[in-house]
Amino acid sequence: LCSYVSSGINAEYGGHAKIWAVDVKWHVGISEDTHLVVLTTDNILRVYSTEEPACALFSYPLFNTDSITPYLSCLNVSAGPSLLSAQAGSMVSFTFGPVSEDEDSVAVFVLEENSDIFVLNLPLDNSKSGGELKGPLKVLPPDNENYELDACSVLCLQSNPPVLITATLSGTLQHLTLLQDSETEDEECLYLLETVELELPSATEEESTCTQSSEDDVTSIVLLADPTAKDRYFVRHNTGIHSVFLPSVQRLEHFVKGDDGELNLECECVVEHLLCVQPVGAGDPTCLFGGTVVQDPMLGANLLVLISNAEFISLPVRSVHREEIPLLSGGDKTSHCASPMKQVHTQLFSQKIQGIMARNVSNPLLRCGNSAGMSQKALLELLMKCTQVFREEYLAKQSKARGELLHHMSLLQEQHSQHKNELSELQNNISELGNQANKLNSRSSSVSKRQQLLKQRVSVVMREVQNLLPDLTSAEVSLKEEMSNMSRSLKSLQQDAQQLQQKLKFQTKTAKNLPTLSNEQQGTVRAILAANDSKINTLVTKIKAANAQFS
């Protein structure tokens, strides 16, 4: 396949130009893995099919042809691809970004040798043409150190927002996140999260009989994405493999989803040296030919590495990033009772021990092709370096953790003795409270007995009172009702008498002004008054007799 692609590219230039592939990746829009995207040294991105590898299906120039074509036409010079690509910088790597919202194209980030990053929208449907090249993307905050002249590889982590990683030949890694530009909302920019310097062997140590190193080998550092975790990636170079874990990716995703109110990116990445094939001072160092992450349903994800002595090394990906060391005491379980020591030490003791035992440096897996060719001095230096790492990262931290445990044990013993004294005092208080409870119980029983006697006496008194109440006959009941009626009628008669008296007073006052009555009229009035007087006297005598009878 590579020979077909190489011959097809050179055929485009008539066989006079020496063009080779710089970066090759499978097309993410084709699920059958039948299309390859190839970046060549003439700054052209080509799409090939494995069924017809001799001819490219599509070609996307990574340079602006409008700026140089008018000048070439004036000089009657044809604008060939090699001449057009000469105006642009050397493109060294590319990576696939997120798919567009309408799922018809995918963003391709192309890295230039001077660390500039361009964006090209590559259509997922091979029947459509690609968009124009945009860039270079602005990097914030602006700094001259953001632009290295030996960039060699780029990788995009499929997170939200996307995170780009660029690598240089000197081992410098830059972590950048893709954001919308605040000045121009239609354009995108890159925000630099952090810069990492990898510890790589010097140039003198890399000079060997390794067949992998050559003048055509441009990307000596390759970035590999971890398919099991989007916040981790691998750095493959000629001397080994590093693993880089980015805690800021998860924080960015939580912030975009709205789970966190504030964004805190002040967290350093975790870098681990997994494999070293060229120990310090190796006489015949082993080179690393390639590496990839292989996923197996039974074995899980593994990092498969091929070295120059035809040996495959498999590293389980699940153990690449070291989690916090679990404690035998089960430090994640919290006690329900509040300890007085928590008022002094706000941090949990288990977290404190885990912080002490956390290792920042680890010894990688060593592979050397010819250990017999190494001098005794080189072996001693390698042994001393590994021993120093074990002493500083294991023994010293274990000794410090042991001192913290002893100090914590002494505090717990003092607290235990204090708890014993408090427990004895509490037991004495419990016995005293028990005696007082017995006394109160006896008094309560006597009070309850007296209460029962009082209840019995009250019930007897109430029974006697009920027996002494008189029982009225039917005649007495009817007479009582008649008396009540008579009392009501008496009240009405009294009111009538009062009205008559008032009328009489009024008549006596007004009688002087009235004409005098005749004898006959006066006799009639006297007869009516005498009749009413007799009725009133009769009723009054009846009431008095009734009152005298019932009194």
Give me a quick take on this structure.
The chain has 551 residues and is of the alpha+beta class. The protein is 39% helix and 23% strand.
Percent in helix: 25-40%
Average pLDDT: 77
What profile does the largest beta sheet have? 5 strands, mixed
What fraction strand?
15-25%
Spans of at least 5 consecutive residues whose pLDDT stays below 50 are 66-87, 203-209, 211-219, 319-325, 331-337
Lateral arrangement of strands in the main beta sheet: 8-12-11-10-9
Cα end-to-end separation: 138 Å
| Bulk shape | elongated
Q: Please give the count of helices.
A: 10
Sheet/helix structural class: alpha+beta
Number of strands: 20
> How do the SSEs run, as a string of H and E?
HEEEEHHEEEEEEEEHEEEHEEEEHHEHHH
Integer-rounded radius of gyration:
54 Å
Strand-helix topology:
Elements: H1 2-12, E1 21-26, E2 35-40, E3 44-49, E4 58-61, H2 69-74, H3 81-86, E5 91-99, E6 105-112, E7 117-123, E8 138-140, E9 151-157, E10 163-168, E11 172-180, E12 188-197, H4 203-206, E13 221-225, E14 232-237, E15 240-245, H5 247-257, E16 270-276, E17 288-296, E18 300-307, E19 312-316, H6 341-344, H7 349-357, E20 365-366, H8 376-468, H9 474-511, H10 519-550
Parallel strand pairs: 8-12, 16-20
Antiparallel strand pairs: 1-2, 2-3, 3-4, 5-6, 6-7, 9-10, 10-11, 11-12, 13-14, 14-15, 15-16, 17-18, 18-19
Question: Could you walk me through the main structural features you see in this protein, from its secondary elements to its overall organization?
Answer:
The structure is a single chain. With 551 residues, this protein is α+β, with helices and mostly antiparallel strands. It has helices at 2-12, 69-74, 81-86, 203-206, 247-257, 341-344, 349-357, 376-468, 474-511, 519-550; strands at residues 21-26, 35-40, 44-49, 58-61, 91-99, 105-112, 117-123, 138-140, 151-157, 163-168, 172-180, 188-197, 221-225, 232-237, 240-245, 270-276, 288-296, 300-307, 312-316, 365-366. It contains ten helices and 20 strands. The longest helix has 93 residues, at 376-468. Helix content is 39%, strand content 23%. The strands form five sheets. It has a five-stranded mixed β-sheet with strand order 8-12-11-10-9, with no helix packed on it. Strands 13-14-15-16-20 form a five-stranded mixed β-sheet, with no helix packed on it. It is elongated and about 165 Å long. Strand 18 (300-307) and strand 19 form a beta hairpin.
